[in-house]
Structure formats: C-alpha cells, structure tokens
C-alpha cells in the first residue's frame, strides 16, 4: 500500500515539493556558509519525494546549534516551504482519494519549518520504535 500511496503522492505533490526543496538546497550550497542548511533541504527533498513508509525523528545529539539554525531557516526558507505544503494539502483534500495525501502534506509542515536536528528513518524499523530514542 505504501508503494501505491508514494506513486500517487509523487505525481500529485511529491515531485513539485521536491523541486522546491532542491531549489532551496541549491541556493544554500551556492552560499558556502549555508551548506548545512543545503544538506537538510536535500534530505527533505528526498523525504518529500517518497514519504510513505518513512518517518522523521529527532536526533538525540541536536542542541543549541540546531535550534539557532532552525530559527534562521524559518526566517529565510522554512515558511515558504511550509506554505507550499499547506496549499498542497488543501488542494489534495478537495478529493476523497487525496485526503490521506493531504494529511501527509500537513504532517510535513513542521519539518519544512524546522529541519535541523532530525533524521529520516523507516517507519517499520525495530531500531527506531518511537520518536525518542537512546544512543
């Protein structure tokens, strides 16, 4: 079922949102100081392309640097990407088949706003049974 959802997502929302994240990543890579933001944007592009069957968890070692970076990301790129997820989610929820995809788009808003200090893991992975994990 996740493959079917991912394919439908890819056609209707994933490709466009992945392009938006890739553009943000490219801009961040061009400005040398913002390369960590580019890496996070690239990671989010892969997640936006194929989200079902994976989930985001907080990194246990993320600290003040991630928090400061997230504030900068929010100001310069995060709210634009989050707005894209909200608009996409609303448009997807207009159809019955699109409701699960719209909900998935809404679930991606927090990671669009604050991507640093998170990692993508398979949702069925026994090593990552919950959102909080120990090292």
UniProtKB/TrEMBL annotation:
Domain of life the protein comes from: Bacteria
Inner membrane component domain location: 4-54, 68-118
GO cellular component: plasma membrane
Segments passing through the bilayer: 6-39, 60-80, 86-106
Keywords of this entry: Membrane, Transmembrane, Transmembrane helix
Kinase among keywords: no
Full protein name: Membrane protein
Organism: Carbonactinospora thermoautotrophica
